Every structure is written in C-alpha cells, then in structure tokens.
Amino acid sequence: xxxxxxxxxxxxxxxxxxxxxxxxxxxxxxxxxxxxxxxxxxxxxxxxxxxxxxxxxxxxxxxxxxxxxxxxxxxxxxxxxxxxxxxxxxxxxxxxxxxxxxxxxxxxxxxxxxxxxxxxxxxxxxxxxxxxxxxxxxxxxxxxxxxxxxxxxxxxxxxxxxxxxxxxxxxxxxxxxxxxxxxxxxxxxxxxxxxxxxxxxxxxxxxxxxxxxxxxxxxxxxxxxxxxxxxxxxxxxxxxxxxxxxxxxxxxxxxxxxxxxxxxxxxxxxxxxxxxxxxxxxxxxxxxxxxxxxxxxxxxxxxxxxxxxxxxxxxxxxxxxxxxxxxxxxxxxxxxxxxxxxxxxxxxxxxxxxxxxxxxxxxxxxxxxxxxxxxxxxxxxxxxxxxxxxxxxxxxx
Length: 397
Known about the structure:
Residues 234-394 form the Lipid/polyisoprenoid-binding YceI-like domain. The structure is a single chain. The chain has 6 helices and 13 strands. By secondary structure, the chain is α+β, with helices and mostly antiparallel strands. The protein has 2 domains: 12-202, Fumarate Reductase Cytochrome B subunit (Up-down Bundle), CATH 1.20.950; 234-394, Lipid/polyisoprenoid-binding, YceI-like (Lipocalin, Beta Barrel), CATH 2.40.128.110. The chain has an 8-stranded antiparallel barrel with strand order 3-6-7-9-10-11-12-13. It has a two-stranded antiparallel sheet with strand order 1-2. Helix 2 packs antiparallel against helix 3 and helix 3 (81-112) packs antiparallel against helix 4. The longest helix is centred in the middle third of the chain and has 33 residues, at 135-167.
C-alpha cells in the first residue's frame, strides 16, 4: 500500500482525503438545503447539528490535506506546462473555497449564538469577537460560497472528462486505489450510506410557528396574591439592574435566556421570614434566548403559546430560614398550569434602601407543557431548566 504521493500517482492518504472531503461537502450541502426548508422541529435541530459538524470536519480535513500536499512531491499529471499552470490555479481556488465555506459557516453560527457539539460529542466553541451584527453578512457570504464552490467543483469534474476525452489522460484513476470499478463503486456506496440519515431526518415532521406578538402590558392580576400584603417591608425590583434569567441546553450544549419584562412585589423581613409574601407577573412574550430563530419559535402553541397565555405568575407566602440563606415556597403558573417551586435565595443589604436578592431553582419544562408535542420526549432541548434570578430591590423606607 502506497502511503505517500509519488511523481506518477497519489498515495492512499491523499486519495482518502480527496473522497472524504468530496462526500462530506456533498452531505453538508444537502443537509443545509433540506434543513433550511424545514419547520422548527427536533429533526431540523438534528439536521443542523450534523450539517455544522460535517462542516467543522471538512475544515479540519482541508487543513490536513493542505499540509499533506506540501509534505509530498508534486504528482505529474501528464499535462503541458500551460495546462499544468491553469490546473494549479484551479486547484488553489478549490482549496481556498473548501476552507472558506465551512469557516464562514462557523462565523455565521458564532454570530447567531447557536451552541452545538460536534456530532453531539465535543463542544465547538464560538469564535471570539464575532458580534450579532455579522450574522446577516456571514450568511450572505456562506450562501455565496456554496454557489461558487459548486461551480468550481463542476468545472473540476468537467476538466477531468475533457482531459480524458481529448488528451487521453486518465486522471481519475490516480485518485482511485486498486481496481477502479471496485473503488469507484465503494465511493458511491459510502456517499449513499452517508446521505441515508439525511433522508430519514427530512421525512420527520416539523412544527408550525406562530407569529410572535409584541410585549404585552402586564395585568394587575397574578396567581392570587398580588393584593395580599404583609407587615413586612415592601421591596420592588430596579428592573434595569435586575435579571430574570434561565439556562437550558440545546443538543447537549448550554444556552442562556431571559425574560425582559416582569413586575414583582416582595414583602420581606429577614428577621421574620415567615411573614414574607412574594408575587411576580411575567410577560412571557418578552422571553429571549438571544437567538432570533429560537425566539420566533417560542411563540407557538408547543412552547409558550403567547396568544393564549401572554403571562406567567409566581406566588409564595411561605418562607423558611436555612443555614445559607432562605427558601421561598410557592407556585409557578405557566400556560394555566401551576406547580410548586422552591426558590433558594440569599439576602444581602447594599444600603438602607437597597438589597441584593439572588435566587436559584430548577424546573422541568414538561411540567408546564413547554416543548410539547414532538418536543415532549425529545432530548435535543434539555428537560431541566435552571432559573437564575438576580434582583436589586429598592424600598421607600
């Protein structure tokens, strides 16, 4: 078995890299095109994760191929000097496009803030310094690269046919190890086998996404305790310096989200926690995951169902002192479904009229039918969601 290239033919490493990259680029193109036309669904997520994973694989293999190319002697294809010069420019352009296309996809993914793991196994980091403003131009470049690369690949194939027909140069045989018919059939078989999962994912259904409405005006009613007062001090959040955030997972990778619009009242005295009352009204239409595609999807009936349930509520009137802080025992209501939720929180005075309130909890999205239907049993979106609340509370006296 010939490992390295010679002046007459390519070794198995070059042959493997050639066909592996070709098959993977074809697969990535098909996946990207199919996924783009699908409704948001577990199948679409899986398709895009594999599309991105294949793209990262191509990027790595192209780098290896370029290094291997310079580490081996140049193979003589039997071309004239003028033909060899033109072929060299064509190959250079092909290498450049094979490198830039997946790189532009990685930049696009970083700008869109889509966390993912390579084949759901290894976390792929975001490229640092890539802002949201680059998403649209990166997408334009990525799509343009697809058309340019397609044209160059077609030209590459046509030149192989041209040299075979008019110059009797059997260039393809140098890239097929052993028996040409057997190895050629093997390449086709591998390509078909790789594309089978794409076809299977494409046949799985998507979900209808309802249009996202504007943020609503918060109502004066919560889950029942808004009008309940206490002898304890009333505290209200400084919204600009507070956050109602959550952390979930997407294909095994963590992502952050936040509700931008909410109102809260907390009657609380750390010396008399048993007298505490906490009420929160949340505008669910103000939810963001900092990713536009996901934010649009969250409006649908399988998620927060904005049209039917534009608000969520949390009410607690049982508070306990612990060794490390306090626990608020209350009920969270989303989509008219109420479940008991404990908030573990700390209470730290900043000054006489300001307190830092930091709370955590974990909820199961399925308990509130967040991600119902096809999402109910699909783990591409994690089932447990961590709640992180950081409020800067103010009082008038």
